[in-house]
Structure formats: structure tokens, C-alpha cells
């Protein structure tokens, strides 16, 4: 059976041609509406982050770590607009809207290949995989670009697929994850070729992939975008030394369960089928997840419609339609219950993620010269960017920091041999250190350093003679 | 299997050489030797920590490694060590061979089996050593093999579970695996068939089988407790699996990738177009879940996935399909050909072993041996803290030393662990904790955070230092004793 055969079997017309019950019609109409509160719940339950901090991170003018173009300026601008218009609620609403759009696109992609309940399951699964990345200023809304791109690529070989380069342009300007646009296009092409066992099946995708590749250069960063964005995707294990990006840390609630469900889905649905057009996409997404937990939403976006389609085919072969729908409805219910069980106990309090660091930094008045601040927890330094007369040694923009700064950060934070010399070499004159780590106990023994302020969690040290 | 034997032979050489000829790379074997000697001396298995520790004497201890420890004590040195270490290596080899054999039973082609065996062999590297969990690997494989067997022979899985429980607490997986197989078989067959009932019976009976050890039901209870224990956060091999684990990246991950791309194939005997077996999917998913949670499970996931992935490859790609030559009548020439491959495999393993022995990649001893030896020269009995608790395994049973924490790890209470972490990671109360426990000797890595903190502390003096380690002793032990008399007891 060719891919065209599958498409012919699975297009909505063939499904609609069957005797659709009133209940199913209602479900079809209600499904998109169901996704909206689900998206809001996921986003509202996830950890909030001050939008102004995120803005400063993206648009900040200077950093001691290095200078580079603010990747994702369009996303930051959207966040700024939402924040300016409606404050924190506006930023939350923007994120929830992006998640809703993402889930709805997953639903539409799944709907083209399977029934309404399975499609709803797929969209809910994609939403659940966004949980750990869903926060104001977080990466989850950026994956909307992937959802749109894959939706457009599903139009192939029709003209609609030519919207892909446009999507790539917007995505690249909104987030460094846009760099994946040509990669995803190539993976879709490879999947189609492998599925059809004919390399010519991929032919329609190559020009689009090339155009998407060219689109990655159409950002203000120009030719520098691919290299900068590649670094920003943290596809280098050295970043795991500095940032909490390992999947177990970055996506502690959903990675393990999502990955296991994907393995179960792939082994159950694809075994013995000799066709797996989506396998390269799913495999690549799973692989990326092991680098950085921020990729877990991508896993949901690519795997959910694929498994919905495969499940539909499997059901058709083995189960009566009524029983299949009942089973799928049970699965959808289980998804909602599982999502609630995962999410509710972890609902955070409504506060800034690092209030302690913020208060301490604000207590450090700027003198005539700028402080160079070292933060043992890098995210704490994001806020330093917004304060006058303060430059962080390194903030979360690790991708634009020189290698020497990364090494210095790690050496000081872990109190490796020779760290006091590194502090001097980097001209650090303020250090923000959690009480619980060794450095907080070692800094007081450094000549010329003293405790300037502290609270229950964090200590702020300053070098005597530094601007105060 | 004919190609897989070559792969297994190469890994056999690697494991044997690593086990026998290379220096130890962890401290567990030291305390296990002590434990074995204690069992042989007293005729009983200790059920609590003794005076070899000062932080938690009397804490309940399930010495699950008792059988392995007796072997370690008997094979302390010389030819005995060669035999004991060689046995550990052979257990890893047996596990790999059993997994390859499962693949053959599943109908995988020799080429697919060889490829997957190579990947699984690489996945064993990180966890391999003269270690008790390695001995459990073939038992896990044998248990699965028997579960899949037809007829009454499947009940032998209970005997394997019983033996397994005397080797390692991972035997608690036996009823879980049997239960998953039961649920899977029920989903596959859609009715309570004799096979489903048999598997259910094995699942229930294996609950009893894993209690056939000196600790009875306490062993599975202990294993269950360990799964949720916070101390696993402090132990390296319990960390979540990641791409920085070479065994995962170059061994288990390729198998996982193949499983996702080609699936796991359809069991032979099922009709064309049939579904894959839930029985197999649930088992492999369970081990995948375990692997994501702890790097120590990378090896066992690879062993479980090997046969299924090999079958998936065989059924998906014609390149891997088994194209057997027509049978030739048995004769002198065919017998020579049959014997040739094992002989070649043996020669290959010997050659690899010689190359490994001559290579310069021998591991460096990393057990702070010189610093611990320096401690021997200090008069009296010392209360020792090792910045890496595994180093203190070498001191267990030493009459001149009592340890804060050692490689036995599990029986130490969570409070002791928290205090240990506070000191070793130089938390805010590290000095108070040291004083409260009246620690009077500390072995640290040179220039590590604790070493730096002690440099700045006048209460401690360096008694020994080399390029990698330093031994610190209290400058004024009497003053500490006075201070701790005033403080509440730990």
C-alpha cells in the first residue's frame, strides 16, 4: 500500500462518508472547544516566570558574557506587547493561546488521518508533553512553529506546502527553535521516501526544504543565525554542566512517561507494518529530548498524530467501530485524568521563580562603576540584566557566551581548584550564591570579600572596594 | 547465532580481561569480602550494621549480596580471584549469549542477531565489573526465557526466581515481569487461556519464590523501599540515564532507535498482519522505564530489547532476512566447517584479550588507597569520613577505623545520608555535623570543595597528601570530644 493509498483511506471525506452518529458529530464540534480550557489549565498550572525578566533576557542591551543579536526577538516582542496591554494576565493568555493553537493543529493533523476521539487524544497528549515547558517566557509556545510547519507540510504535494518557508521565516524570528524548520522538512521527506520505498516520493519536499533553509537566514542575525540558534538549542552536552537541561531535570513530570508511551506506541503500532513515514520525526524528537528536556513538546507534536493514524489503522483491522470509539474515549478520559493527576500537585505558587535573588540584587546599589555579578545559579542573573549598573558574568544566554566564560562559570560554581584566580580574572565583584552549596562557605575565606546581604536561601558577597 | 558467537567471543575477552587483570575501580568488593568472611566465620548473615561504622551502628541491614560476598571472600587473591572474577565475567557473557539465543528463538536472522548483540554488548560496558548485579543479569534473561517457554518447563522460572533472590534484590522484578507477561498474554489472546493462567500462576508463585532466601519477605520489601528511597539521589549509578552514558549512547540508544523505526516484529506463529505481542511490548517498555530512571538499568534494557529488535530488523529489511544455504549432508568437510567457527571465535577472544592486556588503557586505581594506607599509621581507632563514600568500603572491618558511610550505602538511615551530604558538599552546617559525629579523620580528593574548606579550618591538619588525595586529621581531638559532650548525641 502506498502513502497515497493511506491518504485516500484516511481523508476526512472517507470518514464522513460513513454513517456518523449524532454523538460523533457533537464530539467533532466540541473537540476544539475542549482543547481551549485544557491549554489554559496546562499553562496556568505551569511555573510562572516574570515576563519582564524574559524580555530583558531577549532584548537586554549588554552582558558581560558577550554580545550577540537577540535571538527570538519576535517572540519577545509579542510577550512585551501582551505584558504591556494586560500585565501578567496578558502574558499568560498569550502563552495559553499559543498552546491552544498548537494543540488544535495537532488535532487537525490527527483528524486528517483518524477519528475525532483519537485526534482529541493526540491533541491532549501533545498538550501534556508541553507541561514542563509551559511558562511565561518559556519555550513551549515556540513549538507552535513546529505544529504549523508540519500541518503545512501535510498539504504536500499540493501548493499549500509552499507556505512552509513563510512559516520558517516567522518561526526563526520568533525563536531559535526555528532552525529546526529545514530539519523537520527533510525528516518528513525521508519518512515519505522510506514509506513508499521510493526516493522519488521525497522529491516534492526538497525545494521546500531548501527554501526553508534559506528562510533561516532571513532574520536580523543574517548568516549568523544558524550557528547562534544551534548553540541556543543546547545540542552540546557541555551546556548540561551549566544549565538544568537534562530531561529528568527540565521535564521532570512528563519526559519519562511521554518517552515510554512513545516506545509503547511505536512498538505496538508500527511493528510488522513495514511502513512508518513518521518514524524519522519521532526518532529525531526523542533523540533531541535526551539533550534537552525543552524538546519534549516536539516529541508530543510529532508522535501524537502519527500514533493516532496508526491506531486508527490498527483498530480498523481488529475492532468494531463502536468498540474502537469506546476504547479511544476511555483513552482520552485517561489522558485528562493523568494530566490532572500530574499537574495539580505541582501547581506552583504565584510568585517569581527567584524572588530571593531578585531582592538581594536590588539591595546592591550601583555606584559609579558597574558591578560584574556572578550567579552560581545562572537563571538568577537574568534579573541582573534589568538593574542599572549591573552586568552578569553569565546569564541564561549561554549560547552567545565565549567558551572561556562558560568554563569560568563552571569552575567558580563548582569551586574547582583555582577558582579564586578565575574570579579575579573575570573581574567579578559580586557573587550571588545559594547557601546550600560549597561556594557559599568558601567565599568568606577569600581575602577582600565580605557578606553584603543574605536571606534564608541565598547569600550575596561583594568584593571590598567595589562600587557600592 | 553463528555470527553472534563471534561478537560474544570478543565481548567475552573484554569482560574477562577487565575483570581479572585490571585494578578494582570501586570499593564494593572490599566490604563484600569482609561480609563473606564474617558469614564464613560466624555462620550467620549480619542483620544490622556493626561497629565498623560509627554513624549508624545497629541500623537494620538486608545483606542481599551474601552469596556473592562468600564467593568474594573465598576468591580473595591469586587463582581464587581469577576464578571469582572470571565467573563474574562469564555471567555477563552468559547474559549476552542468552539474549542472542532468545533472538534466535524469535526467528531473527544471524546478521540481525550479530548487529544487535554488538549494540547490547556495548551497553553492558558501563555497568560491568566484578559486581553482584552482573551475576543477576543471566538470571533475569533466563527468567524471561522460561516465561516464554511452552509447556511445564515454564514453571522452572520459579526456581530461577528463588536463586535470583539469593543473589540480588533485583529478584523483586520477577513477579512484576511475570505479571506484565500475564497482562500482555491476556491482551494478546483475549481470554483466560491455559497459557494466561499458567503465567498468572507463575506471577503469584514467584511472589513466594523470591522469599526463598535468608531474609524471606524482607528482601522484596527492601527492594520496594529502595525504589522510592531518597538516598538513590546520592548514588551515581542511580542517576537518570543520559547521553553522557556511553553505554546508552552507543549501545542501548541504537537498539531503541531501531525499535522505534522498525518496531519489534511479530512473533512467529502469528498470522500475517497480526498485531505484535503485548506480552513482549509491556516487558520491553517496563525495562525502558527503568532505564530512564537509573543508568544502572541500561545494560538490562539492552539485553531485553536485543531479541525483539533483531526480529524487527529481520522482518522489516530483506537485507537482514535469513537466507540459509541448502542443507548439505553431514560429512567430514561440514563437520570441519561447523567446528571452524567456534574455534575461530575462541582464537578471536584470545587475540582480543592479549591486545587488551598489552594496551596502555588500564584504569587507574581511584580508591584513595595511599591516603587510606596512611591512616593505618595513625595510632588508635579513627572515626573516618570519606568524601566519596565508596572509598570507605576499603576500611570496613579494619580494626583501626570506623567509617561514617561506606559502599553498603542502603542500610544507612536517611538522616545519616543527609548529614554526609551536608559535610561532603560543604553545606552551611558542615562543621557542626563533623563535630556532632566526632569525625577525626577525613579522606578527600585533592583541591575538592571539602579539601579547600579544611585548608581554611584551623581545627584540621593535613597528615598525608599526594597528587589526588589528602588525609586530614583533627588538630585537637580532645576539644571536640568536650564539645560533643555538650551537644546532643547524634
Fold blueprint:
The complex is a heterodimer of chains A (468) and B (490).
Chain A: H1 3-10, H2 12-16, H3 22-45, H4 51-59, H5 73-111, H6 116-129, H7 144-153, H8 164-174, H9 180-196, H10 205-215, H11 225-232, H12 247-250, H13 255-270, H14 279-291, H15 296-318, H16 321-343, H17 355-362, E1 371-375, E2 390-392, H18 403-413, H19 419-425, E3 430-434, H20 438-442, E4 449-454, E5 458-463
Parallel strand pairs in A: 1-2, 1-3
Antiparallel strand pairs in A: 3-5, 4-5
Chain B: H1 4-21, H2 28-42, H3 66-74, H4 78-105, H5 110-124, H6 132-147, H7 156-167, H8 173-189, H9 194-209, H10 218-227, H11 246-262, H12 278-293, H13 298-316, H14 332-358, H15 369-376, E1 382-386, E2 401-403, H16 414-424, H17 430-436, E3 441-445, H18 449-455, E4 460-465, E5 469-474, H19 477-486
Structure explained in plain terms:
The complex is a heterodimer of chains A (468) and B (490). Chain A has 468 residues and is mainly alpha-helical. Chain A has two domains: 344 residues, no CATH class; 109 residues, no CATH class. Chain A is 57% helix and 5% strand. In chain A, strand 4 and strand 5 form a beta hairpin. Chain A is elongated and about 75 Å long. In chain B, helix 2 crosses helix 3. Chain B has 490 residues and is mainly alpha-helical. Chain B is globular. Chain B starts with a helix and ends with a helix. Chain B has two domains: 317 residues, no CATH class; 118 residues, 3-Layer(aba) Sandwich (D-Maltodextrin-Binding Protein, domain 2), CATH 3.40.190. In chain B, strand 4 and strand 5 form a beta hairpin. The interface between A and B is large, with 45 and 44 residues.
Amino acid at each position: 500500500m502506498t502513502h497515497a493509498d493511506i491518504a485516500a483511506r484516511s481523508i476526512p471525506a472517507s470518514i464522513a462518508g460513513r454513517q456518523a452518529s449524532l454523538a460523533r458529530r457533537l464530539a467533532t464540534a466540541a473537540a476544539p472547544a475542549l482543547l481551549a480550557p485544557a491549554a489554559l489549565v496546562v499553562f496556568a498550572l505551569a511555573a510562572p516566570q516574570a515576563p519582564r525578566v524574559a524580555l530583558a533576557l531577549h532584548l537586554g542591551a549588554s552582558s558581560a558574557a558577550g554580545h550577540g543579536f537577540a535571538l527570538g526577538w519576535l517572540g519577545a516582542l509579542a510577550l512585551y506587547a501582551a505584558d504591556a496591554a494586560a500585565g501578567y494576565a496578558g502574558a499568560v493568555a498569550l502563552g495559553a493561546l499559543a498552546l491552544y493553537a498548537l494543540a488544535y493543529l495537532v488535532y487537525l493533523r490527527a483528524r486528517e488521518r483518524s477519528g475525532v476521539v483519537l485526534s482529541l487524544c493526540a491533541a491532549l497528549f501533545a498538550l501534556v508533553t508541553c507541561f514542563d515547558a509551559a511558562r511565561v517566557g518559556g519555550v513551549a509556545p515556540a513549538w507552535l512553529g513546529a505544529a504549523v510547519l508540519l500541518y503545512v507540510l501535510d498539504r504536500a504535494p499540493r501548493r499549500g506546502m509552499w507556505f512552509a518557508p513563510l512559516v520558517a521565516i516567522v518561526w526563526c524570528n520568533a525563536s531559535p527553535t526555528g532552525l529546526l524548520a529545514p530539519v523537520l522538512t527533510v525528516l518528513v521527506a525521508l519518512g515519505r521516501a522510506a514509506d513508499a520505498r521510493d526516493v522519488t516520493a521525497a522529491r516534492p519536499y526538497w525545494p521546500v526544504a531548501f527554501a526553508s533553509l534559506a528562510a533561516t537566514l532571513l532574520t536580523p542575525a543574517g548568516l549568523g543565525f544558524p550557528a547562534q540558534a544551534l548553540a541556543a538549542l543546547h545540542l552540546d552536552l557541555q551546556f548540561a554542566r551549566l544549565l538544568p537541561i537534562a530531561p529528568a531535570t527540565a521535564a521532570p513530570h512528563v519526559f519519562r512517561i511521554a518517552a515510554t508511551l512513545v516506545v509503547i506506541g511505536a512498538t505496538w503500532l508500527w511493528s510488522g507494518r513495514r511502513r512508518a513515514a513518521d518514524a524519522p520525526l519521532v526518532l529525531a524528537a526523542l533523540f533531541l529530548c535526551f539533550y534537552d528536556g525543552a524538546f519534549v513538546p516536539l516529541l508530543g507534536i510529532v508522535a501524537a498524530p502519527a500514533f493516532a493514524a496508526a491506531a486508527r489503522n490498527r483498530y480498523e483491522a481488529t475492532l468494531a467501530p463502536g468498540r474502537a470509539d469506546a476504547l479511544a474515549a476511555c483513552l482520552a478520559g485517561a489522558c485528562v485524568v493523568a494530566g490532572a493527576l500530574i499537574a495539580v500537585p505541582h501547581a506552583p505558587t504565584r510568585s517569581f521563580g527567584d524572588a530571593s535573588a531578585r531582592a538581594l540584587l536590588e539591595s546592591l546599589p550601583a555606584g559609579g562603576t558597574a558591578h560584574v555579578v556572578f550567579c552560581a545559579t545562572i537563571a538568577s542573573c537574568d534579573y541582573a540584566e534589568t538593574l542599572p549598573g549591573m552586568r552578569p558574568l553569565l546569564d541564561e544566554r549561554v549560547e552567545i557566551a565565549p567558551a572561556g566564560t562558560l568554563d569560568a562559570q563552571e569552575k567558580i560554581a563548582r569551586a574547582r581548584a583555582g577558582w579564586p584566580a578565575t574570579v579575579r580574572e573575570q573581574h567579578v565583584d559580586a557573587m550571588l550564591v545559594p547557601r546550600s552549596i560549597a561556594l557559599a562557605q568558601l567565599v568568606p575565606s577569600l581575602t577582600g570579600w565580605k557578606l553584603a546581604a543574605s536571606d534564608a536561601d541565598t547569600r550575596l558577597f561583594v568584593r571590598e572596594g567595589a562600587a557600592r | 547465532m553463528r555470527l553472534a558467537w563471534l561478537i560474544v567471543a570478543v565481548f567475552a575477552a573484554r569482560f574477562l580481561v577487565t575483570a581479572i587483570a585490571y585494578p578494582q575501580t570501586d570499593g564494593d568488593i572490599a566490604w563484600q569480602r569482609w561480609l563473606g568472611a564474617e558469614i564464613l566465620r560466624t555462620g550467620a548473615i549480619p542483620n544490622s550494621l556493626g561497629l565498623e561504622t560509627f554513624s549508624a551502628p545497629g541500623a537494620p541491614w538486608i545483606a542481599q549480596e551474601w552469596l556473592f560476598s562468600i564467593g568474594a571472600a573465598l576468591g580473595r587473591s591469586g587463582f581464587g580471584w581469577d576464578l571469582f572474577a572470571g565467573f563474574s565475567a562469564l555471567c555477563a557473557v552468559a547474559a549476552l549469549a542468552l539474549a542472542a539465543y532468545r533472538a534466535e528463538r524469535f526467528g531473527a536472522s544471524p546478521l540481525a542477531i550479530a548487529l544487535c548483540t554488538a549494540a547490547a554488548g556495548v551497553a553492558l560496558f558501563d555497568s560491568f565489573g566484578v559486581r553482584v548485579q552482573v551475576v543477576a543479569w543471566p538470571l533475569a534473561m533466563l527468567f524471561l526465557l522460561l516465561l516464554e517457554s511452552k509447556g511445564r518447563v515454564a514453571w522452572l522460572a520459579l526456581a530461577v526466581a528463588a536463586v535470583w533472590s539469593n543473589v540480588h534484590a533485583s529478584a523483586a522484578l520477577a513477579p512484576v515481569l511475570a505479571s506484565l507477561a500475564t497482562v500482555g498474554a491476556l491482551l494478546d489472546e483475549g481470554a483466560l487461556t491455559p497459557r494466561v493462567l499458567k503465567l498468572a500462576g507463575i506471577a503469584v508463585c514467584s511472589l513466594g519464590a523470591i522469599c526463598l532466601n535468608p531474609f524471606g519477605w524482607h528482601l522484596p520489601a527492601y527492594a520496594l523501599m529502595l525504589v522510592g528511597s531518597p538516598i538513590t539521589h546520592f548514588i551515581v549509578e542511580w542517576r537518570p540515564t543520559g547521553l553522557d552514558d556511553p553505554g546508552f549512547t552507543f549501545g542501548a540508544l541504537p537498539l531503541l532507535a531501531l525499535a522505534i523505526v522498525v518496531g519489534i516484529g511479530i512473533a512467529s506463529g502469528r498470522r500475517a498482519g497480526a498485531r505484535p505481542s503485548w506480552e513482549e511490548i509491556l516487558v520491553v517498555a517496563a525495562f525502558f522505564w527503568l532505564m530512564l530512571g537509573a543508568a544502572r538499568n541500561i545494560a538490562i534494557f539492552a539485553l531485553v530489547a536485543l531479541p525483539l529488535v533483531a526480529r524487527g530488523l529481520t522482518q522489516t529489511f530483506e537485507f537482514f532476512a535469513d537466507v540459509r544455504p541448502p542443507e548439505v549432508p553431514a560429512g567430514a568437510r561440514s563437520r570441519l566447517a561447523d567446528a571452524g567457527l567456534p574455534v575461530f571465535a575462541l582464537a578471536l577472544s584470545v587475540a582480543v584479550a592479549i591486545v587488551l592486556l598489552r594496551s596502555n588503557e588500564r584504569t587507574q586505581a581511584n580508591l584513595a588507597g595511599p591516603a587510606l594506607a596512611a591512616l593505618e599509621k595513625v595510632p588508635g581507632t579513627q572515626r573516618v569520613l570519606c568524601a566519596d563514600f565508596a572509598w570507605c568500603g576499603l576500611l570496613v572491618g579494619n580494626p583501626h577505623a570506623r567509617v561514617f558511610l561506606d559502599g553498603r550505602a542502603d542500610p544507612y538511615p536517611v538522616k545519616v545520608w543527609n548529614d554526609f551530604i551536608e559535610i561532603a558538599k560543604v553545606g552551611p552546617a558542615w562543621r557542626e555535623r563533623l563535630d556532632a559525629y566526632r569525625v577525626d579523620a577525613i579522606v578527600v580528593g585533592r583541591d575538592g570543595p571539602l579539601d579547600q574548606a579544611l585548608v581554611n579550618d584551623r581545627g584540621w591538619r593535613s597528615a598525608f597528601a599526594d597528587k589526588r588525595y589528602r588525609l586530614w586529621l583533627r588538630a585537637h581531638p580532645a576539644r571536640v570530644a568536650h564539645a560533643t559532650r555538650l551537644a546532643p548525641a547524634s
